[in-house]
Design brief:
single chain; mainly beta; two-stranded antiparallel sheet; elongated; binds zinc ion
């Protein structure tokens, strides 16, 4: 009767949590809570496979200053999203 349609669900390039590039997953920067991940050590990005070209995925350009392009996540932000800082 009904067609057994097995649609394979393709996993899209994961939106999800990745290690915070700014604090390297520690949740802290110089003994204060990381301002990028809020101490969680993880940040949510849309596509973690694309590194931020600006900071080369490090999350910062200079110590203490999160990358303004990716907001410290180290991953390219989706087009159209506001800058964090
Ligand atoms: Zn962090
Ligand atoms: Zn960046």
């Amino acid at each position: 009767m009904a067609e057994a349609k097995e649609t394979k669900i393709r996993t899209p390039k994961v939106p999800g949590l990745v290690k915070c590039a700014y604090c390297d997953g520690t949740g802290k920067q110089e003994d204060i809570t990381c301002i990028v991940c809020g101490g969680k050590g993880k940040v949510e990005v849309v596509d973690s496979s694309r590194k931020c070209q600006w900071c080369k995925g490090r999350g910062y350009l200079m110590k203490g200053i999160p990358c303004t392009n990716c907001g410290g996540t180290g991953a390219t932000r989706p087009i159209g999203k506001e800058r964090l800082f």
